[in-house]
């Protein structure tokens, strides 16, 4: 598509992108879960708003259904991080999704 293969050299693949999907889990959205606070694995200095703060860091893969995190905090994944600001909380639902909402509710 972007050139031609030289006949005397093998073709080299530089990068490949794969997108995969699956059927959703068969978990009712309204399934009751007992929410429970989890302990942070570490802290990091983070710029939130216009001030530097020491915030709790949680590893995404270690969070189980029912985990609750109150901000400010970071949920770290391999290639990204989710910021939970002060006055917000994050809960992990039965399907493993992060639910972020203002806390306390105004």
Describe this structure in words.
- The chain is an all-beta fold.
- Helix content is 0%, strand content 38%.
- Strands 1-4-7-8 form a four-stranded mixed beta sheet, with no helix packed on it. Strands 2-3-5-6 form a four-stranded mixed beta sheet, with no helix packed on it.
- Strand 2 and strand 3 form a beta hairpin.
- It is extended, with a radius of gyration of 20 Å.
- It starts with 35 loop residues before the first strand and ends with a strand.
Q: Specify the number of helices.
A: 0
Report the biggest beta sheet as strand number plus sense, adding barrel if it closes.
Answer: 4 strands, mixed
- Measured as a percent range, the helix fraction is under 10%
Query: Uncertain spans, ≥5 residues at pLDDT below 50?
Result: none
Structural class: mainly beta
Please give the order of strands in the largest beta sheet.
Answer: 1-4-7-8
N-to-C order of helices and strands: EEEEEEEE
Radius of gyration: 20 Å
Number of strands: 8
Q: What distance lies between the first and last C-alpha atoms, to the nearest angstrom?
A: 55 Å
Q: Average pLDDT across residues?
A: 83
Shape: extended
Indicate the proportion of strand residues: 35-45%
Short note summarizing the structure:
The chain is mostly beta strands and 106 residues long. The protein is 0% helix and 38% strand. It has a 4-stranded mixed beta sheet, with no helix packed on it.
Set down the secondary structure blueprint.
Elements: E1 36-37, E2 42-48, E3 51-59, E4 67-70, E5 73-76, E6 81-84, E7 88-92, E8 98-102
Parallel strand pairs: 1-4, 3-5
Antiparallel strand pairs: 2-3, 4-7, 5-6, 7-8
